[in-house]
């Protein structure tokens, strides 16, 4: 049975700014765009090409992202790149528009290429996992790929993130084949994407309330639960100082680490749904194939 791993309000991180963002560090901030977080990496007033956007929100979020970027980095300031944790609809919602307008490269893991160059669709969402209305509505969520192939740059095999000095990418599959998390060892900062989240993303009520608690990746789009468990354990072993996830509030400190450790230790009991089409039979998503009953 899926359970929550709660943490206290003292673990919350982020200082609100007038531009709609919340700063975790001088050069690390996020903004919630309806139901998903986008991350801004770069010092305030970094200027044109002096910062990086991580993920690109949901459809309709372009104005919020651009407005926050201009307020934070300067009028007309374009990023040096857009880095993707993965290519699900709520992380690439305005990717094509922003990439074209800003004329920027897009970095992603090689296993996400089919979903970013227009050649394959993700497996169908699974509304049978339970958890709330957002899960039930998941068949309505788009799975068709975007096509940014001409701008796509595959992350280098050495783990570096060229437009983000000091950061490394970590392959954290399970939620999607090429999901990556971003790690800066120097100060313990982790951008986890949807490898795990800090709200019950299946529930409209939980998403609205945003109470801090640890959950596995959003269940209705996760296609390989064994890989997802291994990814969470790999991230917990880093002992991060602060985490910002794709959904929910950023968290920091010792209480955050206790919650992440509990999620990693008991992942199968607290994060994996009791039933679902991908629980026993992971999807072969590398070629975009949809789930079929064995």
TrEMBL record:
InterPro entries: Metallo-B-lactamas (IPR001279), NDM-1-like (IPR050855), RibonucZ/Hydroxyglut_hydro (IPR036866). Residues 35-247 form the Metallo-beta-lactamase domain. It comes from the Bacteria. It holds the Pfam family Lactamase_B. This is Metallo-hydrolase YflN. The gene is yflN.
């Amino acid at each position: 049975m899926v359970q929550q791993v709660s943490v206290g309000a003292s673990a919350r991180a982020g200082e609100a700014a007038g531009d709609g963002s919340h700063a975790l560090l001088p050069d690390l901030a996020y903004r919630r765009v309806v139901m998903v977080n986008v991350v801004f990496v770069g010092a305030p007033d970094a200027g044109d090409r002096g910062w990086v956007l991580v993920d690109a929100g949901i459809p309709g979020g372009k104005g919020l992202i651009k407005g926050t970027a201009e307020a934070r980095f300067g009028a007309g300031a374009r990023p040096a790149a857009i880095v993707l944790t993965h290519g699900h609809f709520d992380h690439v919602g305005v990717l094509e528009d922003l990439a074209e307008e800003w004329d920027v490269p897009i970095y992603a893991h090689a296993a996400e290429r089919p979903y970013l160059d227009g050649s394959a669709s993700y497996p169908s969402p699974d509304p049978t996992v339970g958890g709330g209305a957002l899960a039930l509505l998941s068949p309505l969520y788009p799975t068709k790929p975007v096509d940014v192939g001409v701008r796509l740059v595959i992350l280098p095999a050495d783990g570096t993130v060229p437009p983000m000095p000091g950061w490394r990418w970590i392959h954290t599959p399970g939620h999607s084949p090429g999901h990556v998390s971003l790690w800066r060892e120097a100060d313990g900062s982790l951008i986890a994407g949807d490898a795990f989240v800090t709200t019950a993303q299946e529930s409209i009520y939980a998403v609205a309330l945003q109470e801090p608690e640890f959950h596995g990746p959003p269940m209705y789009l996760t296609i390989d639960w064994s890989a997802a468990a291994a990814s969470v354990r790999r991230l917990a072993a880093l002992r991060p100082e602060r985490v910002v996830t794709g959904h929910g509030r950023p968290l920091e400190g010792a209480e955050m680490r206790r919650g992440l450790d509990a999620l990693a230790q008991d992942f199968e009991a607290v994060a994996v749904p009791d039933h679902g089409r991908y629980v026993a039979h992971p999807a072969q998503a590398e070629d975009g194939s949809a789930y079929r009953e064995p």
